[in-house]
Amino acid sequence: MGFRQLVWALIAALLIYGAWQLLRALLAGRGRAEAASPPAAAALKADSTAAEDEDDDDSDFNYAPLPSDVVAPAAPPAPEAPAAERPDTFALELELQRLRREVGALRAALDVQQGEIGALHETVQRLLDAPPAVSNAFEDSAGQSASPEYSEALVLARRGLSVEEVAARCGITRAEAELVVSLAARGELEGGV
After folding, report:
1. 173 contacts 150 by C-beta, under 8 angstroms
2. In 144-173, which ranges are continuous DSSP H helix?
3. pLDDT at 138
4. Which of 31, 152, 180, 187 has the most crowded Cβ, counting Cβ within 10 A?
5. H or E segment at 144?
6. Are 131 and 155 in contact (CB under 8 A)?
7. Which sequence spans correspond to the domains of the chain?
8. Is the pTM of this model over 0.85?
9. Rounded average pLDDT over 104-110
10. What spans are recorded as compositionally biased (Acidic residues) (predicted)?
11. Alpha-carbon distance 5 to 153, whole Å?
């Protein structure tokens, strides 16, 4: 499909959409007129059917009453609410769609926060279930120059755990665990002298 054909297809689609909107507007206008004064609408409908019987060749264009066929309403119509007080259906639909999108976004944010809260609960539970020696090791290493994120690994390495065990328990890479174990071994040698 060439560019020119694509442009023509787009124009055709826009024309169809415009015709659809025009038809909706005409039907909405008729619905309001019939709702405003039912006796006058019945008289207009009777006049339009009589005109259709007379003009069979112009039946395609007889969708609206002619201005001379308009009959005055028998009773005065009920006063309508000012335009500012009447609800606009289109605006209400737009507002409803906006609110639905906003509620969806808020629900998604709530789900993310609930997941984060669950992860925090699990972390707190793991810390509470940790053996007291490990928590004391954190307190002991706080005064030392070791980084807080490697203090547990340093304590485990000083206890004699292997590189793989230190890496698995502390969630660090093997290279980091090797460095911590070597620092722990060097610290014991310096401390023993």
Report:
1. no
2. 151-158, 163-170
3. 47
4. 180
5. none
6. no
7. 91-129, 132-191
8. no
9. 95
10. 50-60
11. 69
